[in-house]
Structures are given as structure tokens and as C-alpha cells.
Specification:
Keywords: Membrane, Transmembrane, Transmembrane helix. With 84 residues, the chain is mainly α. It is 94% helix and 0% strand. It is rod-shaped.
């Protein structure tokens, strides 16, 4: 996210590069657009990571519950096997 001060600096750099030639101007334009796209991509990655973390936490809780259920079943089987 750019602030107003950064836009002024960017405009100054961009204007000076235009005076240096078309290739310099194209390079600066490409640099800024690439940087903006990378920031957007990074925000999307962070959202995906947060969603994945939530899923992992839910699965960890489910596995904990499943482990307890398996232990309970095992105790019942072992306990019932001794009584027969």
C-alpha cells in the first residue's frame, strides 16, 4: 500500500527516468507494476495460509477426539475379553 508521500517520490523517479529515455521509463514502470502485483499475491498467500492453519487446527482436534475414542474402544475390548 502506497502512501501519498511515496507516490510523490515514485512520480519524481518516474519523471526523471522518462527524461533518460524510453527504456528507462519502461523499466521503472515494469518494476512498480511487478512490485504491486507481488504485494497482492503475498496478501492472497497470507489468506490461504490462515485458512490452512484453521483447517489444521480442526483436524488436530478431530484426531485428538478420535484417539480418545480408540482408547475407549480398546479398553472395552480388553475388559470384555477378560470377563469371558
Amino acid at each position: 500500500m502506497y502512501t501519498k508521500g511515496m507516490r510523490t517520490v515514485e512520480e519524481q523517479i518516474f519523471n526523471s527516468m522518462i527524461q533518460q529515455g524510453a527504456f528507462a521509463a519502461l523499466f521503472v514502470w515494469m518494476l512498480f507494476t511487478t512490485q504491486k502485483k507481488n504485494e497482492q499475491r503475498e496478501e492472497q498467500y497470507q489468506k490461504v495460509i490462515e485458512k490452512n492453519q484453521a483447517v489444521i487446527e480442526e483436524q488436530a482436534k478431530a484426531f485428538g477426539s478420535l484417539s480418545k475414542d480408540v482408547s475407549d474402544i480398546k479398553q472395552k475390548i480388553m475388559g470384555n475379553g477378560d470377563e469371558k
